[in-house]
Amino acid sequence: CGRAAQVSVSLIAIPLDDAKGFNLLRMTRVFRVVKVFNSLGSLKTIIQALTSAILPVSNAFAVLAVATAVYAVIGVGLYAEADPIQFGDFKRSIFTMFQVITGDGYSPALALADM
To answer: Given Cys at both, which of 37, 72, 87, 111 links 79, Cβ 3.0 to 4.6 Å?
Structure first.
């Protein structure tokens, strides 16, 4: 009954594009998507698992960022004079650490570019 009412209001509102009340009622069609998500229990479980994993993954990312920054500072202190292209300053050193973490080998040209 609810879907039939929404469809009929939408069909009536097509010629009346400037009618504010019909546009508001037409916006209720969005709630049909919410009903579909609620009816699919497995999809709901997957979405809950993904949302509950956001905080632990962001914590792991923060720990990785701090460890990378520490090693970048050590790299600047130890290798700035020996290899200024990769460890000349913190910005270059953090980029080199990013390359090491990701196993990157495509960007020697980026390391030579003015950062």
So the answer is: 87
